[in-house]
Amino acid sequence: MLSMQGLNESNPVLRAGNNPLHDLDERERQLALFLAEGKSMTTATALAGYGPAGMGGRDRKKKVEDPRIIKAVNFLRKKSEESILTSRKKVLEGFLEAIEQAKMLSEPMTQIAGWREIGKLCGYYAPEVKEINVNIGAKRVIGQLEVLSDQELLDIIEKDREAIEGEATLLLSDPHNSEASEKHDGTPEAPA
Fold this sequence. Notes:
Blueprint: H1 12-15, H2 26-36, H3 41-47, H4 57-64, H5 67-104, H6 108-122, H7 136-146, H8 150-173
């Protein structure tokens, strides 16, 4: 992350071409930096010197919504992301170089340790997130069945039994069904 000391003219970020920070005065630069760091509007404006935290809400909002400030905040965030990615890449390259040296020296435990660190850096050791999907519809049906009387449950069972027997009769009478060529008791019928 960039720091307040890093916003002086000797910083290469400020010297880069198309730098929106050039268009800002020192307090505006500080405001952009604090906003880029994720501080709230109230905190960032107070830290940048735009009065006490409890005063001038409209003026603070107007200042934070200034297109030059927004452009500078986006610029600083992008530079911060680039530096993080660069340093991560350098760390990874360093581990790979150390693993290669351990391989040449025939030190397998050092190689394993190096690969373990790369795995951590890449996030391979992060805990897995398991998603459990609970079917609320099934719980609702069970709840409805629990409140039914015994007679109502028997009526439902009788209807389902009739439906199941009806489907079995249809299957047995279908000439295109391979099960239809067998008798109801499971023995094959003689061809007609």
